[in-house]
User: Fold this.
Amino acid sequence: MIRPGAPRGMEMGRVASRAVRAGACCALAAAAAVAAAAPAAAATPMNESYAVYATGRTSTQPVGVASYSGGSPVLLPNADAAGLLGTGPITDSAGAVSAASWVPGLAVSLPGRAALRARLASSSCRYDTGARKVAGTSQVDQGQITQAGQHPIALPASARPNTRLVVPGVAVIMLNRQFTGGRGTLTVEAIRIRLLGRHQKVVLATSVCAAANLAPATGLGGPAVRIALGAAILLVLGGVAYLLRRRRPAVHT
Assistant:
């Protein structure tokens, strides 16, 4: 409201000044929202999968890593490790609520002229957005352990979680190994092998899923913040430009 007797230019200057202050407050609030959203996004667990991981005499970084943020699917001609294992073409994938790993043509060398073979070892996990739960499973198709002079040991195709098999003098094998990590992240391993007497471990077809939908949110952490921040900046700039025009001395001719 313009007070009686007050110069109109002075009152408009006050209005613009208040607009600048209000816009600055909006800009600071929007920036604070962006800053608050960034650490939360960085701390979010990631969905990923990989075909092979080995530690011991033969060590490898996870092979064929696919992740929701980094790239998916990942296809490789094999995940071979000389003297330890051979595979066919592997496929790993990860999405906003799921992950999966497929390792076909699997052959793992075991002590005592033994071997573990399978037509396919696979694992998968998925977060159910309705039930708000994450679950996983694994498959071993036509899997068996062979030893010289021994009958083959058939591996169950759909083993219960954390099924443990012991082959005396050869290996300890865990099928469908599942465990929950921080913030409810589920890890599923189709096959985990510990070779006896060799200090060697091999993990095959691993899938990891967070207990959350990792798709970008549309709330304050997304476009809403950018729109509010842009509007606040425009408001500030407009107010500053108006003040500069009002303060410019008039040129009399």
In short: Residues 26-42 have pLDDT under 50 and may be disordered. The longest helix spans residues 8-42. The chain has two domains: 8-42+216-247, 48-209. The chain is about 25% helix and 40% strand.
